[in-house]
Protein 1
Amino acid sequence: MSTLGKCIDLLLTRRSVRKFKKEPIDMNTILRILDIARWAPSAKNLQPWEFIIIMDRNTLRDLGSLAFATRPLINAGAAVAVVVDPSLAPITYLVDGACTTMYILLAAHALGLGAVWINALRYQDEIRKILNIPSDKVPISVVALGWPAETPSPKPRKKLKDLVHIEKYGKKLKY
């Protein structure tokens, strides 16, 4: 398969993995993922993000116990919290944080790990407290990482013709 084909395959085969094997993830693998994630695009290249690596079982359990949506963290091999600084990028910090989170997900997939994006915005106060995040920083996501214990099937996607407009909104793609 060509390099282009491998890149497209990587993008099309990434899935949200919520069940993990009980195998540890070594720190070098996590650092490799974050070294890739720091190359994510950000407005004006401000890179308003920081990462918190979480490997402590008690911390993962505390985060995973916040809500049904956070449960994958309980059995994850590790997690990474993406924390952004709104003062560095007041208009784009949410988008910038989302971009680097996506890079974490793609890098984890490329390295054979499973991962799922836990939306931290809903649980900001609790996550700040558990991870000792200053009040002027915003936790955007906590990515659960682990060796996959499941292979989720792709979810249905909307048809391209239902999503694309030509030149102006409302002028739909016809094919």
Protein 2
Amino acid sequence: MAQYFEVHPENPQPRLLKQAAVLLQKGGIMAVPTDSSYALVCHLDDKDAVDRLRRIRQVDDRHHLTLLCRDLSELANYARVDNRQYRLLKLGTPGPYTFILEATKEVPRRVSHPSRKTIGLRVPDRKGLQLLLELHGAPLLATTLIPANETEPLNDPQEIRARYEKLLDGIVDAGACPLEPTTVIDLTPMGTGDDPLVVREGRGSLQALGL
């Protein structure tokens, strides 16, 4: 049965999020609000938690999982970033963008894309999630909370509770999210001098990145 944490969207209570961070450190799977929609998250280095997250979301190892990082310096530990890529990242973080980059050896092989050795990375712009990342002390592995055989992410924490409380260890309720997916940009072509590739246009403005 999932623990339920009601936090203020603008002034999240550290006491509650400390309890949520402990759950994650023990291998828990949680639903948390981001600056685009609710997501499922778990600890990066826990194989059992990662396998469970995939089962709950019903996706296989070809589905790109995303690393939620606190800032660009943390992101650079998990992805190879050149100067051109870094300038683009700086324009889009924090914010509703997911960037696909070449994974470093710090990323466990089981969570990077099996054929391309890439990883999606994101620096969210949501106070409660930023505080949770800080209290957790490391990036979280995430996937958008879209139920199996559906196309829209869940946005109502009460609905998430009704449908998933027996599968999850915790739910952070900070109210509704914008309910628009992140803009996904593949930066790996930039490593060979090509332009970045827009994989999905979402909430993040392409004009803000000069694309």
